[in-house]
Specification:
single chain, about 190 residues, alpha/beta, Rossmann fold, seven-stranded mixed β-sheet, 6 helices, about 40% helix
Length: about 190
């Protein structure tokens, strides 16, 4: 009888832990687009919708680093992107028109442009503990037609069930942002 109770308790615990996985990214993937066409990309500086000043610059750098680490595309240097944007008088990166996307693509010689935003960076407090949360959205716009061919949104961080149960240490905002970016890029590259 004790063994049966122990097995039921372990089964319940496994079900609870298994059901407490992280939030999966929300992903859009253009079904008719041939992604093999995309060899060279540019990353436009991300927009900051959070109250954390500098979060978008950090996210842009981390995202470029992740793209380079994956070795999936040739990535235009950030200085060249800024120079082309100034030349074309583009300042509002989150609101590029189709025409702006086409012009920027032609100027940089890229097949697609990554656009993104940091929607939230927060420290959530619960009792005596705190945890960092980051929410980001990134999309890939092809430069021939100026249409979105991929988009992903993700939220990473927070105190999970295991961490709460065992009192594991919390991750810094930079670690949480890096993890958020890794989860986003996995939806396109892995």
């Amino acid at each position: 009888m004790k063994n049966l109770k122990l097995l039921l308790l372990l089964g319940l615990l496994t079900a609870v832990i298994g059901g407490c996985g992280g939030i999966k990214p929300t992903v859009f993937l253009h079904q008719d687009y041939n992604f093999a066409f995309v060899e060279k990309v540019a990353v436009v500086p991300f927009e900051d919708l959070s109250s954390d000043q500098g979060a978008s610059s950090r996210a842009t750098r981390l995202f470029i680093g992740q793209l380079l680490a994956k070795n999936a595309f040739d990535v235009v240097e950030p200085g060249e992107v800024s120079k082309a944007m100034m030349k074309l008088s583009i300042s509002r990166t989150a609101e590029l028109s189709k025409e702006n996307s086409k012009q920027l693509g032609a100027e940089l010689g890229v097949q697609a442009i990554f656009l993104g935003s940091v929607n939230e960076t927060a420290t959530v407090r619960s009792g005596n503990s705190a945890s960092n949360v980051v929410t980001m959205t990134v999309r890939l716009v092809e430069t021939e037609q100026g249409v979105t061919i991929w988009s992903a949104s993700n939220t990473t961080g927070g105190k999970g069930f295991i961490k709460s149960l065992f009192g594991a240490g919390e991750k810094s905002k930079a670690e949480v942002m890096r993890n958020c970016i890794k989860e986003i890029t996995k939806t396109l590259i892995d």
